[in-house]
Amino acid sequence: MKKILVFTYSDALGGSEFHILKFTRLLNYKFHWVVLNRANGSIKDAIIAEDLNIGYNNLKYKGITDLSRVLRAFHNIFKGDNKPLIYAVGFLPSLFASLLKISLPEINLITTRREMMPWKRWYHHPFLLFINLMSNKIETNSLYLFNKIKSQWPLKSKTYYLPNIISDEVINPSSTKNPFKDLDKFKLKIGLVANIRPPKNIPLFIELSKIILSKYNDICFALVGRDSVNQGMASLIKDNKVHNNFLYFSDIGHDQIGHFYKTIDIFLFTSLYEGSPNVISEAMINQLPIVSSRIAAVEHLLHHNKGAYLCDPSDVQNFLESLEILIENPELKDDFGKYNKNLIRKLHSKHKIKEIIKNEFNY
After folding, report:
1. Using CB atoms within 10 A of its CB, is residue 266 exposed (0-12), middle (13-18) or buried (19+)?
2. 292 CB neighbour count, 10 Å cutoff
3. Which is the most buried residue in 213, 221, 303, 309, by most CB within 10 A?
C-alpha cells in the first residue's frame, strides 16, 4: 500500500490539517504525519485514531538553528522508502522538504498554496522560486491562486486544483450534544465560524453586530472560533463593549459545528484575505445565504446577488444594507440559501475530488 508523508508546520486545529484528515479517508493509502512544532489544542489524538495514519513525529522545531537537526530527523523517518512522496503544507514545510530533496532527488514532492501570503516580502521570492523548482506538483484549493500560479509558464504543468472537502459532520453532526440550543430563543441568528486572528477581521463582525442589534432586539450575532491570539477575543469583547445578544463559542468540536450551521439563518464572512475558506463551502452546503467580503478567494465560489452579497471589506454601510435586505426579506433569504446549496453540490463532488487525488498522487 502506498505511503505518503504529510508534513505540516503544526498539528493545529486548522483548516489545512482537517482538510488532510478528510482526504485521507477517501484513499487506500498509508499516511505518516510529521509536524515541525506541536500546537496547543492539536489534533494529534484524531490523527493517531485514524487507521490509515501509521505514524506521527513532532520535530520540535524552534528556529533556523534547528534546520540541520530537522533535516536529519526527517531523513531518518523515511529511510529505506523507495521514491517517497512528501505532501508539504505551508511555506516552511515546503521549504524544508525542498532542501531535503537536494540530497534525495528521488523524493516526489507535492507542495501546497492555501492562502494569499500577505506577509510575503521581497526576500521570500527566492525561496518561493526554489520551492516551485523542487516541487513535482503544486496543489491549491483556491481557483484564484490556481489561475495565478498556472499563468507562470514553468509551473503550468505542475499545478492542480483540489476543491475543499466538505466533511459529513458539517452536514449531519455526529455529536448529539448541541451547544447552540440557547440561540433558538432569537427570531433570527447571524453567524460566523473563524479562528480569532487579524486576517479574519473580527472587529468588523463586532461593529456590524452593534449597529444591527441596536435596531433589532430579536436577533443575535454568534461567533464560533478558537482564539489564536492570547486572550485576543476577550480583549475585543471588552474594548468594543459588545451587545448582550452577541455570543462567542470557543470550545466547539468539529463533530458539533454542523449544529451551528443548522441553527443560524445568515452567514456573515468578514475576512480580509483567504485562500479558499472551508467555512464558505460549509455554509453553502447548509443552505445559508451569505454576506461576505469581496475578496478574490470567495469571488470564485459565491455569485453576487444570487446566493450572496459581496461587499468591500472597508464599506461598513454596504454590509449593513446587505444584511438588512436579508433580514427584512425571508423569502429572498431562503432563495439565496437554496441557490448556494445547489451551486456547491456541483463544485464539490467527493467522487471528483477522489479522482483528482489519485491522479496527482500517482507516482
Report:
1. buried
2. 26
3. 221
* Per-residue model confidence (pLDDT) at position 287: 97
Residue 274 to residue 205: CA distance in whole angstroms: 16
Q: Which three cell numbers stand for residue 305?
A: 446577488
Spatial distance between the Cα atoms of 313 and 309, rounded to a whole number of angstroms: 12
C-beta separation of 178 from 165 below 8 A = no
> 289 CB contacts (<8 Å, ≥6 apart)?
265, 266, 267, 307, 308, 326, 332, 333, 334, 336, 337, 340
Please check whether residue 159 is in contact with residue 237, taking contact to mean a CB–CB distance below 8 angstroms: no
Residue whose C-alpha cell is 487579524: 198
Burial 2-14 (b: 16+ CB within 10 A, else e): eebbbbbbbbbbb
Q: Which residue has the cell 523524493?
A: 107
Would you mind telling me the total number of residues written for the chain in this entry?
Answer: 363
The structure's pTM equals 0.83
CB 221 within 8 A of CB 212: yes
Cβ proximity of 265 and 288 under 8 Å: yes
Half-sphere exposure of 33 (CA within 13 A, CB side): 28
Burial of 35 (0-12, 13-18, 19+ CB in 10 A): buried
Count of beta carbons in the 10 Å neighbourhood of residue 216:
16
For cell 523515511, name the residue.
78
Q: Beta partners for 140?
A: 113, 161
Cell numbers found for residue 341: 446549496
Q: What residues are paired with 221 via a beta bridge?
A: 190, 246
What span, in angstroms and rounded, lies between the C-alpha atoms of 36 and 95? 12
